[in-house]
Amino acid sequence: MNERSKIPYVAELETELLDKINCLGLGPGGLGGRMTAVNVAVETYPTHIAGLPVAVNICCHVNRHIVREI
Questions:
Q1: Tens of pLDDT, residues 46-69
Q2: Total structural domains in the chain?
Q3: Is 37 a domain residue?
Q4: What is the pLDDT of residues 9-36, one digit of tens each?
Q5: Could you give the CA distance from residue 25 to residue 27 in angstroms, rounded to a whole number?
Q6: CB under 8 Å, gap of 24 or more: what pairs does 36-45 form?
Q7: Residue 42 lies in a domain
Q8: Whose CB among 15, 21, 32, 60 lies 3.0–4.6 Å from 37's, allowing a Cys bridge?
Q9: How far apart, in whole angstroms, are the C-alpha atoms of residue 67 and residue 55?
Q10: Phi, psi of 51 (to 5 degrees)
Q11: What backbone torsions phi and psi does residue 14 show, to the nearest 5 degrees?
């Protein structure tokens, strides 16, 4: 989990993305907080742009909503 890519520019991108994601203030499940992501891993492989795979892993829809009564 705490491993970075062996490619220097990809490792720098992973670190930069993790910092920027955690600065958003979304928190776990989008409910607010300081830590939104635990890790960012960028995998690289030569491919045609039309077949460029992208994956985003998020929590269940139910976990991203909160209701408060005052």
A1: 877 777 777 776 666 555 666 677
A2: 1
A3: yes
A4: 999 999 999 999 999 888 877 778 888 8
A5: 6
A6: 38/1, 39/1, 39/2, 40/14, 40/15, 41/5, 41/14, 42/5, 42/10, 42/13, 42/14, 42/17, 44/5, 44/7, 44/10
A7: yes
A8: 21
A9: 29
A10: -105, 20
A11: -60, -45
Q: What pLDDT score was predicted for residue 60?
A: 60
Predicted TM-score (pTM) of this structure: 0.63
Could you list the residue range(s) of the whole structural domain that residue 14 is in? 8-64
Are 27 and 36 in contact by the 8 Å Cβ rule? The answer is yes
CA dihedral of 30, 33, 34, 39, whole degrees rounded to 10: -30
Q: Check residue 14 and give its pLDDT.
A: 94
